[in-house]
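Batch job 17 of 40 flagged for manual review because the log was empty.
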Amino acid sequence: MLFKDLLGLPYDRRSGLVCLEAVCRELPNIPIDVVEQLLVDHGRKADHQHFYGHIDLASIVWNQIEASASALSAASVLPDFEGWTSNVASRAPEIRRAGWVAADARPEVREHWQREGTWMRAPIFLAGEIAKWGANLHLAEGHTRLGLLRGLLRENMLPAAGKHQAWIGTVSGGLAF
């Protein structure tokens, strides 16, 4: 099943979200976290369809791994999301000045970052071999999370070698981090 085939699945007409049960039925081997974050949330969005429509979802092997902040922060992002990711990264100096309240409007998110030094939910990355963006990793979902990580690294508020959970989709099943 190609990413573009998500357009043929049932969806909620109000929210535009693809039906979770339909995706799970068609792609039973994809972890639910990847299904929810990427396929359900973004399966009908034009920007994602434009860049990912050709990707064979059934051929991807998904692994949740721990990777270094520096490896993850080097990931490419879609051009349409580069500005957002940079905007979120620019919050870091304000976090240093005003505290974690500047990190995110959601209290549970900022409290988790402050306490754990990482995101609450692992973002979704594709290996460069799939996304063909020229980078080792390409971020498919989690632009706010990656932006905050980049900003915190730039401000030396997190160690570059620090480990963070991430979903990585590959065709071969393995990448070393």
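Reviewer: the log was empty due to a logging misconfiguration, but the result itself is present. The chain has two domains: 3-58, 61-170. Unflagging and moving on to job 18.
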